[in-house]
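Hi team,

As requested, here is the filled-out complex form for the glutathione run. I kept the field names the same as last time so the parser does not choke. Let me know if anything looks off before we queue the next batch.

— J.
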Amino acid sequence: MALIEKGLKYRTHLVNIANGEQYQDWFLKINPRGEVPVIQDGENIVPDSLRIINYLEDKYTGESHARLIPTDESADIIEKHNHFHTIIHELPADVITIGSFYHTEFVRSPKLPFIYPVRRHMKTVTAKSLAKLKTLLEKGHEAGETLKLKIEFLEKLEATIKDKEAFSKVLETVDRVLDEVEQQLWDNQGRGLRHIITNPGDWEGYFFASYSLGNLCLLFY
Ligand SMILES: N[C@@H](CCC(=O)N[C@@H](CS)C(=O)NCC(=O)O)C(=O)O
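And here is what came back:
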């Protein structure tokens, strides 16, 4: 999204994380945590969506590239933007998505592509990933230290996902964040603005918090 909004040319390479491609050697050399998204810009390799956004914002902002994080606006707008961007981005997308495969009682009407066979397959992916990472570690993989952290992360993730109470607490946090977003959208509508944080006086201009919100909504769809 950031690449498109900034009008940058790019080539996409899809990594099949449902089949463990992220743990193949070629990808671990790019990102030892075995996670997408990652961008490669010349010599620079940047993983992690937040780091990617900050990188693109630093390197590609100006006349021909839109600015996605406010810096010149009033302190109030900057603070509000950063607040919403942070609270939305910090919601654990992995727990929300995979947790819903385990606790179907929280799910109302799942849409494509998360139909039953996909959910069944995705449920086994975390377990398979853990086994794969442990094998790589035992074999003394060069990214060992990072893989160890990733194993710890996945073990915690799996525990949260399987624990109905922990999952329900995550959903309560999502609820609180969405209430805050809704309130802000109502306030903005009263002032004739469409997005959570909008460039003042500019009907179409909007910032990254709106993208984060769009992504979050996709998880629920
Ligand atoms: N903090 C990272 C999280 C990235 C992440 O969890 N990516 C998931 C897909 S949405 C992934 O690559 N999972 C594969 C795995 O962990 O094995 C970001 O925001 O980019």
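Two things worth flagging: Residues 17, 22, 34-37, 48-50, 94, 129 surround glutathione (CB under 6 Å). The domain at 1-190+214-220 is CATH 3.40.30.10 (Glutaredoxin).

Thanks,
J.
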